[in-house]
Specification:
The complex is a heterodimer of chains A (219) and B (215). With 219 residues, chain A is α/β, with parallel strands linked by helices. Chain A has a single domain, classed as 3-Layer(aba) Sandwich (Glutaconate Coenzyme A-transferase), CATH 3.40.1080. Helices cover 16% and strands 27% of the residues of chain A. Chain A contains 5 helices and 13 strands. In chain A, the strands form 2 sheets. A 10-stranded mixed sheet of chain A has the order 4-3-2-1-5-8-10-11-12-13. A 3-stranded mixed sheet of chain A has the order 7-6-9, with no helix packed on it. Chain A is globular and about 50 Å long. With 215 residues, chain B is α/β, with parallel strands linked by helices. Chain B is built from 6 helices and 11 strands. In chain B, the strands form 2 sheets. In chain B, strands 1, 2, 3, 4, 8, 9, 10 and 11 form an 8-stranded mixed sheet that branches. The longest helix of chain B is centred in the middle third of the chain and has 13 residues. The two termini of chain B are 19 Å apart. Classes of the chains: A alpha/beta (219), B alpha/beta (215).
């Protein structure tokens, strides 16, 4: 199982039946492939609809927020961009899953630009993190160069301040304590020890007394 | 179509509906690319891709400024931003939509929690309401809005289809001249009043074209 699949499978367990969920482009989109049996969710797409589903026949009028053709499920609804962000900012989205460049010990998230290098823009990410009830960041634990991405303090421009609730990586599940009170290591992937995770994390981790092996990885 | 493109002049601020090209008025945009109108300020969700819709404005260097939420799908926009050829103002998508809505709704602005504590916060007035911090965001308007619709009647009543709707209905209220490219044009009365998504009173001109998608 590759890193992305581990992350997507574990995040799927965080979703509850009936949740309204917005999945970011890329890895977060994979989460919907691994929903546990009996968990039905409504996926919101910030370009203007709810009820995103698997692609059946390509309809050029119907794409997701990444511009890819998608389908809709029965019960779906279409709307304009203002209504879309009324849902997002208004607290009507239960969970958003986003990628991350950096997350820090206060739950700050940076995921929209690297000054001078990559400036794709924030799109809907800043609205999503400020409005969704639960913000899950799914990302690889370290950068390609092995540098820590879970930091004491983010040094990239922020997407949102004190917004992250859960960080899921291929090594660990880390929960953010509200009010900037730090990070708790709750689960480690099979074969990974708490010491391994601590070594690859710059932020201080409190190790949960109930530390377990990462859930959701076996079928 | 010729008459419509004549209304867009060098130096104007234009709003264009669409999301990654889907819902751009593609025929109108192509006609403006051919015409070569320049120094435009573009207000749109994004700059599409280099070969599609408003992405061509960037490649053809017809813009002096782009006010958008995302440019990641058009590498040329990023390149021109870094070299300083194009002024790009990035705005959170929900804030962009609501600023346009305010511009069309006679409102002086709105308060949003989006962007508090980020660089979006810089230079803006911050207000605390009920213990929570909000940013004051101001309305946006344009000289001309270029929109797409699936169906229009001859009064200008509009119906959109699937995800081509996005920014189109909001922008219909927020520009001095509103031009809509419709895939299907029908007689007045053929669209049931309950099905109308944007009233024709805000639409000035309708042109036929592909509407909002490349097929």
């Amino acid at each position: 199982m590759n890193s992305k699949e581990i992350i997507a499978r574990r995040i799927a367990l965080e979703l509850k039946d009936g949740d309204v969920v917005n999945l970011g482009i890329g890895l977060p989109t994979m989460v919907s492939n691994y929903l546990p049996k009996g968990v039905n969710i409504m996926l919101q797409s910030e370009n203007g609809f709810i009820g995103l589903g698997p692609l059946k026949d390509v309809d050029p009028d119907l794409v997701n927020a990444g511009g890819q053709p998608v389908g809709v499920v029965p019960g779906a609804a279409m709307f304009d961009s203002c209504t879309s962000f009324m849902l997002i900012r208004g607290g009507h989205v239960d969970v958003t899953v986003l990628g991350g460049l950096q997350v820090d010990s206060k739950g700050n998230l940076a995921n929209w630009m690297v000054p001078g290098k990559m400036v794709p823009g924030m799109g809907g990410a800043m609205d999503l993190v400020s409005g969704a009830k639960k913000v899950i960041v799914g990302m690889e634990h370290t950068s390609k160069d092995g540098e820590a991405k879970i930091l004491v303090t983010c040094d990239l421009p922020l997407t949102g301040k004190s917004v992250v609730n859960v960080i899921v990586t291929e090594l660990a599940v880390i929960r953010v304590i509200p009010e900037g009170l730090g990070l708790i290591l709750e689960e480690t992937a099979p074969g990974v020890t708490a010491a391994d995770v601590v070594a690859k994390t710059q932020a201080k981790l409190t190790i949960s007394p109930n530390l377990t092996t990462m859930k959701g990885l076996s079928n | 179509m010729e008459k419509a493109t004549e209304m867009v002049k060098d130096g104007m601020t234009i709003m264009v509906g669409g999301f990654l090209g889907v819902g751009n008025p593609l025929t109108l945009v192509d006609a403006l690319v051919d015409k070569g109108v320049r120094n435009l300020t573009l207000i749109a969700n994004d700059t599409a891709t280099p070969q599609l819709g408003i992405g061509k404005f960037v490649v053809n260097k017809q813009l002096k400024k782009a006010i958008v939420s995302h440019i990641g799908t058009n590498p040329e926009t990023g390149r021109q931003m870094i070299t300083g050829e194009l002024n790009v103002e990035l705005i959170p998508q929900g804030t962009l939509a609501e600023r346009i809505r305010c511009g069309g709704a006679g409102l002086g602005g709105f308060l949003t929690p989006t962007g508090v504590g980020t660089i979006v916060d810089e230079g803006k007035q911050r207000l605390v309401i009920g213990g929570k911090a909000y940013l004051l965001e101001l309305p946006l308007r344009a000289d001309v809005a270029l929109l797409s619709a699936h169906k229009a009647d001859k009064f200008g009543n509009l119906v959109f289809r699937r995800s081509t709707r996005n920014f189109n209905p909001i922008m219909a209220f927020a520009a001095d001249i509103v031009i809509v490219e419709a895939k299907h044009i029908v007689e007045i009365g053929e669209i049931d009043p309950d099905e109308v998504m944007v009233t024709g009173v805000v639409v000035d001109w309708i042109v036929t074209g592909k509407g909002g998608n490349p097929q």
